Amino acid sequence: MTPTPPSxxxxxxxxxxxxxxxxxxxxxEAHDRGELCLRAAVIINPTDAAGAEADLRGRGCVIxxxxxxxxxxxxxxxxxxxxxxxxxxxxxxxIAALRAGAHVLVEKPLAGxxxxxxxxxxxxQATGRFVAVGFQDIxxxxxxxxxxxxxxxxIGPITSVRFLGLWPRPAAxxxxxxxxxxLHADGTQVLDSPLNNAFAHFVNLxxxxxxxxxxxxxxxxxxxxxxxxxxxxxxxxxxxxxARSPQGTSFxxxxxxxxxxxxxxxxxxxxxxxxxxxxxxxxxxxRLADGxxxxxxxxxxxxxRRFMFEAAVKKVHNPSTLVCTTALAERHTAF
Length: 335
Description:
By secondary structure, the chain is an alpha/beta fold. The chain is about 30% helix and about 25% strand. The longest helix has 17 residues, at about 300-315. The two termini are about 35 Å apart. About 45% of the residues are buried. The mean pLDDT is about 95.
């Protein structure tokens, strides 16, 4: 029988710099509200994170220099492990945390290969712990509402899904860490690109909206892919990809980091009964063929991250809490 976690979930955090600062801020706020106990953290660069380390120690958090050492020392005493690290380390850290008895919230994408996704899902099943994936838009209640409307057939069978996103990134973006723009790093597949990193949220959301059931994403077959690069990288920084689902839905994904102007992510879904216009941090509009319309405001990214974090913490005690599952995230990795 799985032991019941204490009233305040005991939480560990791997990393406190870079993108992990976001998870650190959310965890500290929740700790101060009494919603969780920050029990342990891994800080591998104490010189760069002296302030964060002092702050965490002041909250009673034990600091480790290595994630394996932390999980070995804290095995059986953690309820949730936060993993906001780079793509090469998602699988190995997630599996290690599961085996140490912790549930996991891991940053997107779930992994760089289907083999690693399969290993994560096997460990999840073997340990009886859950893995929530940091595709933050899945946790947005407006997106859940839209998915319910689509599954109820509000625009009929979805015939096409189109995504467009343009976010300029300088050369420094691809030198910020040892895996940016790489196909492989640290002995594993990474496949870093706009579609597997910055715009991964929206690719995954497209698959989610077009999935045949409420909690399922679409499975697609790529029909053509134009993968281009202007930067000196292994992977691509610009792409146009066409795909199709077994249900016959066509997909078009256009994304680039090599541009002068910004186009915030937009998703368009078409069906015989109408059209959905989804615009990042702005609005979700359903236009029906009979002229009726329904529009809802979309929360910003900060709010979506809070929804995500709160759901992961809540799920420790309430298994029915909805999260982005490994099954859903696997569809993105497969694409």
